[in-house]
Amino acid sequence: MKSIETLPLHDAILNTINIDWKNRSVIFNLNVFIVKGGDALSHQLTFENISNIEVPHNSPWGDSIFINGVSIIEDNYEIEIQSGDVIKITAEKHSFSPVAS
Q1: What is the pTM of this model?
Q2: What angle do CA 41, 44, 46 make, to 5 degrees?
Q3: Cα angle vertex 45, ends 43, 47, to 5°?
């Protein structure tokens, strides 16, 4: 599994976030620019065995649907949106996969 920091998520479009309470997982539905200058392609970023998720939507930098960057800080995955909001997820692992069209 690739480190989350190496995934091509800068400028990816965040469409939806789905939480599966029973299975303790969360799925981010994204459109990702895999090839520079190419079209954005549908992908899912999934976190498994989550124990916490924070999803602020205050937009201190203004509204945006684009991801600025992703990192791991302490035990949390952090997804910074270009709005200035930071989504924090505590999970055991993540996966990243294309969505069949």
Answers
A1: 0.93
A2: 160
A3: 160
Q: 87: pLDDT confidence band, cut at 50, 70 and 90?
A: very high
The predicted pLDDT at position 19 comes to: 97
The secondary structure of residue 58, as a DSSP letter, is -
Using the predicted structure, report yes or no on whether residue 32 has a pLDDT greater than 70: yes
E strands of 1-101, at which residues? 13-20, 25-32, 41-48, 52-54, 67-73, 76-81, 86-90, 93-98
Residue 1 · residue 95 · CB < 8 Å: yes
Helix (H, G, I), strand (E, B) or coil at 6: helix
Backbone torsion region of residue 49, taken as left when φ is above 0, otherwise alpha when ψ lies between -120 and 50, otherwise beta: left
DSSP class of residue 33 equals -
Kindly state the greatest CA–CA separation across the chain.
39
**From the CA atom positions of the chain, what is the Rg in Å?**
13
